[in-house]
Write a structure and sequence with these properties.
single chain; 3-stranded mixed β-sheet; 8 helices; 347 residues; alpha+beta; 17 strands
Length: 347
Amino acid sequence: MGVDYYRILNVDKNAKDEDLKKAYRKLAMKWHPDKNPNNKKEAEAKFKQISEAYEVLSDPQKRAVYDQYGEEGLKGQVPPPDAAGGPGGATFFPTTGDGPTMFRFNPRNANDIFAEFFGYPSPFGGMGGMGGTGGGSMRGSRFPGGMFGDEIFTSFGDGRPMSQGPRKASPIENTLPCSLEDLYKGTTKKMKISREIMDASGKTIPVEEILTIEIKPGWKKGTKITFPEKGNEQPNVIPADLVFIIDEKPHSKFTREGNDLVVTQKITLAEALTGYTVHLTTLDGRNLSIPINNVIHPTYEEVVPKEGMPIPKEPSKRGNLRIKFNIKFPTRLTAEQKSGIKKLLGS
């Protein structure tokens, strides 16, 4: 019977199409010459055998001839079960003399079978010059040479050819400036966008949409809000995601450090030494009075708990309000003033 194609693919004679695909997928991956650089000659021969076995057993007509007459029948040594022509490498032709019409199977290029199965000429690259497999150069592969790992097949599915689906357009990013008050209290912003969509006939038409963005209390600069696939629609392209990135506008009074709010008060030296009451209007409009009876030195900082920014993941909690001081020192003192200060503070 010559070559045992069932044995080459490790399947039984009742194997169905799905079984053949699974077997070919596994063995083509194992014996591809690029995966066997140290044993390339044997791998080329095995790869060619595997491809030929899959071609025969996955084609009902070739398989019928093979099952009845073996490899010899396929390659023109006996008549076929019927004399009808067939596609895909099978040819019927009259012999010379009075002999019957014969069936002749010409194995296809192993690389072509591989390309049809996986949807690419080569998912590995570096397949130029396949020697015994009869392959030509595989330029243009999207994988660099040598990037050959078993995991590359996991996305193909069991026996299903890999298809090249539509690509996803790169995200479109826009800055969304927000005041510190917006980020403290939360707010809603409405953004008008213009984009192109495709109608049923595939023609692009311009449209305008209003996007609603809910700014949550405590959000920070750099927070991203994504509207999936709100970019322009194009053939064979998944529309881009539209991404808004929070930016924080400078505030006239407060600065933000993490979840804390920081404010700096200008005071005189006399106020620093004798006591000072801080009067502040908060970001949500409340008035605070914070008396300070300590001596205020240049690095002094008054901390007011829970008067900072809301914490997004813990809405009931807030950061702190930190009050720093810029003490204004006198530029000159008279002799009398100096003497008086010495008396008050001691030498």
